[in-house]
Amino acid sequence: MSEEIKNEVVVSETGFSNLVVVSEDKDFIVYQKPDGTFERKMKYHEFSSIVTETRSEKIALLQLRDKAEEMKGFIGKELVLEGVIITPYTSLDEETGEISHGATTTIITDNFTKAVVTSSKTVYFKIKELIDLFGHDLFNEGDQLTIRPITEKGQKHMLTTIELVG
Asked: How far apart are CA 162 and CA 113, in angstroms?
């Protein structure tokens, strides 16, 4: 890594103090905070398995995403993974100045009539893992996987994730 990148000063995700970028790869940035401790932040990557070509296809996809239901309402239920859209976002807490990064993961199912959305980092990781393992073919008819949203105990709180169904 070049010295230019190591000495880059960035806006902290925990306020407006300066952080120094220590290392960076395609998925993470490691910062050194002013107190000498280190913090690793994930980079989220945009992805869509769905390609829209016509105006009517784009409108239909937008309308489907607009009526997406939260994943927490599908805990324990099976979903056929027909498509996925990952959209990174940045949000700012106007009271504390804290900036957070994340991604919404939208799962398309039920013959492209239902969208299920979550901002769970664990679901993001699992979907990326499935794409890395199976490639984009997993969205082809006949090659689709069935998943089940579940909750499991994390270090600090309950996490929403997905599991493959036998």
From this structure: 20
Query: What Cα–Cα distance (Å) separates residue 141 from each residue in 131, 138, 145?
Result: 15, 8, 10
Strands (E), 12-145: 18-24, 28-32, 38-42, 47-48, 69-70, 79-80, 83-92, 99-109, 114-118
pTM here?
0.79
* 74 vs 100, more confident: 74
Distance CA 136, CA 110 (A): 19
Q: Could you tell me the strand order of the sheet in which 158-164 lies? A: 79-80, 146-153, 158-164
Question: Do 101 and 42 meet the contact criterion of CB atoms below 8 Å apart?
Answer: yes
Q: What is the band of 166 on the pLDDT scale with cuts at 50, 70, 90?
A: low
Distance, CA of 82 to CA of 95 (rounded, Å): 40
User: What are the φ and ψ backbone dihedral angles of 124, each rounded to 5 degrees?
Assistant: -55, -50
Q: Which two tokens stand for residue 143?
A: 């090659």
- Give the per-residue pLDDT at 65: 95
Q: What's the rounded Cα separation, in Å, for the pair 32 and 49?
A: 36
